[in-house]
């Protein structure tokens, strides 16, 4: 589904990822961990085409990402839902409008008027907050709304960047359950997180592989977490 073949990524500050090879199989569940600044967000950005590898081959849905034209890239991105670390809401738009944004952008705005949106917001427990503005939401509500927006277009892959940052344990468990539920629906899930207790908690719920970025490489983490 997503395959990195000897991928390296270099920017002005130096090489961040070096000769990384990795396969995310359809329906798999992965955590990506590693110290701050190791390159977790960068790896996620490579996976959804926001950055291109400096060298190596990265294919998504069996297509070499470097060879996609603009339209093909847009189609590819629609199949990947991203939960950004900073949530990225438009503060002047309501929660419902923010979550429906991917539909507007993809020209399916009329669906936003139908039940899909309220079903989705009920699923994340925000059915009663449709008209709230983002600044009125708590951290946990923002994170759940970001997850709802990421899956608005029924993506095949969900990439979540610190989806439980700034929330308490109970809320992080709730978010984890939602992500596990998405995986049980067949979606491929990759979660970047610092939170090793989240990874431990997931073990009883889902068969997850844990990847660790260390010294510009990705290793499969052992059972010592
Ligand atoms: N294109 C770029 N230009 C400048 N700096 C970059 C670029 N890409 C990555 N970096 C730097 O590389 C480092 C890794 O960033 P990244 O956000 O991927 O790490 P991270 O593991 O997600 O960190 P955190 O856990 O703190 O979110 C950072 O210091 C970042 O500023």
UniProtKB/TrEMBL annotation:
Concerning SUPFAM superfamilies, the annotation shows: P-loop containing nucleoside triphosphate hydrolases
Give GO cellular component annotations, separated by semicolons: plasma membrane
One Gene Ontology MF term: ATP hydrolysis activity
Domain ABC transporter per the UniProt entry, residue ranges: 2-225
InterPro entries recorded: AAA+_ATPase, ABC_transporter-like_ATP-bd, ABC_transporter-like_CS, ABC_transpr_LolD-like, P-loop_NTPase
Superkingdom of source: Bacteria
* PROSITE patterns, per database record: ABC_TRANSPORTER_1, ABC_TRANSPORTER_2
GO biological-process terms attached to the record: cell division
Keyword tags: ATP-binding, Cell cycle, Cell division, Nucleotide-binding
User: What is this protein called in UniProt?
Assistant: Cell division transport system ATP-binding protein
What is the originating organism of this protein? Ruegeria faecimaris
**Upper lineage ranks?**
Bacteria, Pseudomonadati, Pseudomonadota, Alphaproteobacteria, Rhodobacterales
């Amino acid at each position: 589904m997503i395959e990195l073949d000897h991928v390296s990524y270099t920017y002005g500050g130096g090489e961040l990822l070096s000769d990384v090879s990795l396969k995310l199989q359809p329906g798999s569940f992965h955590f990506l961990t590693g110290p701050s600044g190791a390159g977790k967000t960068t790896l996620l950005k490579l996976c959804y085409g926001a950055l291109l590898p400096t060298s190596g081959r990265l294919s998504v849905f069996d297509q070499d990402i470097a060879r996609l034209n603009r339209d093909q890239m847009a189609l590819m991105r629609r199949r990947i839902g991203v939960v950004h670390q900073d949530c990225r809401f438009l503060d002047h738009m309501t929660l419902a409008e923010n979550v429906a944004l991917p539909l507007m952008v993809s020209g399916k705005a009329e669906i936003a008027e139908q039940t899909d949106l309220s079903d989705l917001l009920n699923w994340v427990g925000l059915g009663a907050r449709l008209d709230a503005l983002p600044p009125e939401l708590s951290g946990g509500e923002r994170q759940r709304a970001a997850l709802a927006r990421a899956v608005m277009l029924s993506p095949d892959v969900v990439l979540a960047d610190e989806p439980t940052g700034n929330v308490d344990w109970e809320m992080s468990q709730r978010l984890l359950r939602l992500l596990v539920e998405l995986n049980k629906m067949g979606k491929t899930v990759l979660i970047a997180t610092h939170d090793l207790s989240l990874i431990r908690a997931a073990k009883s719920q889902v068969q997850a592989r844990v990847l660790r970025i260390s010294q510009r490489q990705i290793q499969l983490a052992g059972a010592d977490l």
